Automatic annotation (TrEMBL):
Entry keyword set: Oxidoreductase
One Pfam family per UniProt: Acyl-CoA_dh_2
InterPro entries, sorted: Acyl-CoA_DH_C (IPR013107), AcylCo_DH-like_C (IPR036250)
Domain of life: Bacteria
Acyl-CoA dehydrogenase C-terminal domain: residues covered: 2-83
Protein name: Acyl-CoA dehydrogenase C-terminal domain-containing protein
Species for this entry: Mycobacterium kubicae
Keyword Oxidoreductase: yes
Length: 106
């Protein structure tokens, strides 16, 4: 989970520094940031899954806050911008210099 935080803080630092302004950051940098965010979302989901494993089936009860955390994290991690497979493909193509883009968000 620490690695997810470090990745997200790195992106936040770039945003604060103004290096990720749309159009100015450059495609490779934006592709890397997207992959970083997707990986952080995946790591977060794995941490939530571990917590659920510890909670057991009671963690899925409607009255359980854990169920709400799991649901919220699951929805957020499935957002199109955080899809790890798409993020990795975009980043990989940028590293290889492949001009074809699969997402208009990058």
């Amino acid at each position: 989970m620490r690695s997810a935080g470090l990745l997200v803080f790195d992106v936040a630092d770039e945003l604060d520094a103004g290096t990720l302004v749309a159009g100015e950051a450059g495609y490779p940098r934006r592709a890397r940031v997207r992959a970083q965010c997707a990986f952080a979302a995946r790591q977060t989901m794995e941490a939530v899954q571990t917590l659920l494993d510890v909670c057991g089936t009671g963690g899925f009860a409607e009255a359980s806050r854990m169920q709400q955390y799991w649901r919220d994290a699951s929805v957020a991690a499935r957002h199109a911008a955080l899809n790890v497979h798409v993020g990795y493909e975009i980043y990989g193509k940028s590293l290889l210099g492949v001009a074809e883009r699969i997402s208009p968000l990058v």
